[in-house]
Amino acid sequence: MTEHADPAPAEGDDAIVIPTPSGEEIAMGLSELPDVKEMLELLIEERVPLIYWTKVARGYYIVGRYDDFVFLLENATEKTANDGVNKDRLRCMDMLAAYYVRIGMKTKDDQKKRMYFGKATILYTTADKLMMYDSDHLIGRAYFCLVESQKWEQAKTQFEYVINLRANDVIAIIGMGLVCYASGNYNGALGFFKRALRYNPKLPAEVRLGLGHCFLKLKNYTKAFAAFQRVLNLDPTNVPAKIALATCYFHNGVDDIAEQALRAVENNDHDNAVVLNHLANVAFLRHKYDDAELLAWKAYEHTSNQSDNHNEIKALKAESAYIFGRCLHVKRDYDKAAKFYQLSIGFNDKFILAHFGLGQINLGRGNFEDAISSFEKVLSAHPDDCETLKILGSIYARWQGPVEDDKQRESRKKALEFLTKVHDKKPDDIEVILELAQLQESTRPDESLKKYEKALKILEDDSTFEIPAEMYSNIGALHHQLGNYKEAHAYYEKAKEIVLSSVDCSPEEIEAKIVTLDYNLGRLYEAIGRNNEAEEIFDSILSKKPSYTDALLRIGCIWRDRGDYMKAMNKFKDAIAIDTENPIPWIYIANLHMDKGETKLAQSSYEQVLKTNKNHPYAMIGLGDVWLDALYNVRSNEKDEKEKNQEIQRQCYCIICCCVEKESKKCMGSQWYWMCISASRQNSRCS
Question: Looking at the predicted structure, is the pLDDT value of residue 640 above 70?
């Protein structure tokens, strides 16, 4: 048995007239149509032209005898394969194909859907061989492209071909309107729907419904309201127009009237899933989350009764599942919310709001890879959405790893790209300005400083916002880095003033912040040559925090710069005693030995670093310097001179290869490589 489609509008009990070879005519009313097998025998025996087969088949369709309609057309295409005019054969195939498309749209069984669409495909393909460029055939095929797999471009090409032949073909014009609407070209769709109505003002009310939806998308709510009102004047029972009219009320801020309009529809149709979803959204926006859940669940359960279009059913279920998940999300039941978002996506992978919600949950869980995947899908559908660009930029900006690798660099590049796009659109978005400032601290300190100062000005103009000390400290550090020492000093002092006057921090937190700021001030005094004052600050820090190794190291560096290597060495050793895993004091000690020409002691210190961090680039380069020094100092005519040169060169090249492999983005290793080659050639010439 064939599944039933809604009957086409009946034209009364019109008689069907069938000619015979003798010149007589057989007339019968639609209610008098015989058994289809008898009719088939009659048509074959009387050799009735194929054009009349389609009229008889249509009669069976009008009275709701769908199986007979299919049986007759199937036999028409088989038994008259070598008979009749191609145009008539084409019409038989197109009618049957259109029926299969309609049935395929209605069925909820995916296997049956594929079967009906498969039959339609065969019929359209066979018909192509008869008259590929017949206008009516192309229109039917184009609508099939829209329904089966949303082949917008293919459908567009076929509609355009028909319109070029028949400029006033209303069906093709409406088809072009649908293509434009589906592809987001709402102005184009509006133009085609208006054009269709100019050619035929008596078109069904649904065409004006299309006009209204175009106006809605273009945010012209006044004209949208008028269009939907006109639809209801023509067809007072049109539920989609009533729902759309309620949407206009919402956009105009008349929420109560909008809800009343939706309730009125619900009273007449308790199980209308579209209305229930709208009401669920209303309840959610009014923070009535339990009511929203009940309405969304009811919509989900009754969706199958709402439409015979399988794709529409899936879209409605996707929305219901999303609303339910959204309610759970706001209630902080994240696990269940995520499941409903995933359920929504399962019904409609292009439902962007569900992807956004799932991305938020994964972000909150720290599942950054999954969050990025969700937000990237949102961004692919809405490339200029500032909220999504902002979230993705923030995630990529925080992409961290043990060392700076290609993935981390690529993430920072994306973060800069996305956040810059948002900043161009919203130049006063304080969060984006600060994100960009932090992102550019290490690569573009001058640009970072500009962003921080812009953010500071915006925040200072807001009397309700208390600017944190960290912001002044960051600005001071950037001025310090850029050599603006006077400005840096002022910002450090301002930051200290805020910390000391803070009432929200514990004494321990205040002390920790003051120590950090004092350390920065000490570094500043070092930079401007006020080493005595710097040393006093570092000593003061150590009196409070004896294990503050950075302060110890700076005092050591001050003594080193004074030429007192013994005191410097003692400070560096004190730092090692506090933190044996810290490579920096060992590096400083090794450098002291190198300055004094004690290469073997320097080698021992560099090797100590490499024991705990075998890929430490500075230690590898330092060790290479040791071997390079040895290469320069091999005495001419010394015993085993050649063997020593070869062994030292081998050690140098091993370190070079390792260093270049680990630090391929930097040029230090490659420069050192040529120094080694130069030294080895010089030694070769001397020998």
Answer: no
Number of C-alpha atoms within 13 angstroms, CB side, residue 371?
18
Can you tell me which residue has the tokens 């899933």? 273
Could you identify the residue written with the tokens 């050619």? 199
The secondary structure of the chain in percent helix, strand, coil, rounded to multiples of 5, reads 75, 0, 25
Is 531 in contact with 558 (CB distance < 8 Å)? yes
Provide the 3-class DSSP secondary structure of residue 464: coil
Longest CA–CA span in the chain (Å) reads 129
Reported as a single tens digit per residue, the pLDDT across 400-432 is 554 456 777 888 889 999 999 999 999 999 999
pLDDT at 641: 52
Torsion of CA 451, 455, 458, 463, to 10 degrees: -160
pLDDT at 492: 94
| pLDDT of 537 strictly over 60 | yes
Instruction: Provide the sign of the torsion angle of the four alpha carbons 599, 603, 609, 610, taken in this order.
Output: positive
The closest alpha carbon to 566, from 601, 531, 522, 596, belongs to 596
Average pLDDT, the chain: 82
User: Residue 454: pLDDT band by 50, 70, 90 thresholds?
Assistant: very high
Question: Which is higher by pLDDT, 655 or 9?
Answer: 655
10 vs 6: CA distance, rounded Å? 11
Q: Give the 3-state secondary structure of residue 7.
A: coil
Distance CA 574, CA 568 (A): 10
The secondary structure of residue 529, as a DSSP letter, is T
CB atoms within 10 A of CB 270: 11
DSSP state of 17: E
| Amino acid identity at 582 | N
**Which residue in 171, 177, 105 sits closest to 138, CA to CA?**
171
Answer yes or no: is pLDDT of 669 > 90: no
List helix spans (H) across 382-468.
Answer: 386-397, 406-425, 430-439, 445-460
| H helix runs in 63-185, sequence order | 66-79, 86-106, 110-131, 135-149, 152-165, 170-182
Rounded to an integer, what distance in angstroms lies between the CA atom of residue 659 and that of residue 478? 30
pLDDT band for position 304 (cuts 50, 70, 90) = low
The answer to whether 431 and 390 have CB atoms below 8 angstroms apart is yes
Phi-psi label, residue 26: left if phi above 0, alpha if psi -120 to 50, beta otherwise: beta
| DSSP, res 143 | H
Q: How far is CA 310 from the centre of its chain?
A: 27
Q: Which two tokens stand for residue 667?
A: 């040029």
Q: Which residues, at least 6 apart from 134, have a Cβ–Cβ distance to it below 8 Å?
A: 87, 90
Two tokens at 36? 């289809």
pTM (2 decimals)? 0.67
Instruction: State the pLDDT at residue 481.
Output: 93
Q: Where on the phi/psi map is residue 366: left (φ > 0), alpha (ψ -120 to 50), or beta?
A: left
Least confident of 48-62, 402-416, 634-648: 634-648
Please answer whether residues 599 and 630 qualify as being in contact, where contact means their C-beta atoms are separated by less than 8 angstroms.
yes
pLDDT digits (tens, 9 = 90+) for 57-109: 888 888 888 898 888 888 886 655 445 567 788 888 888 888 888 888 777 67
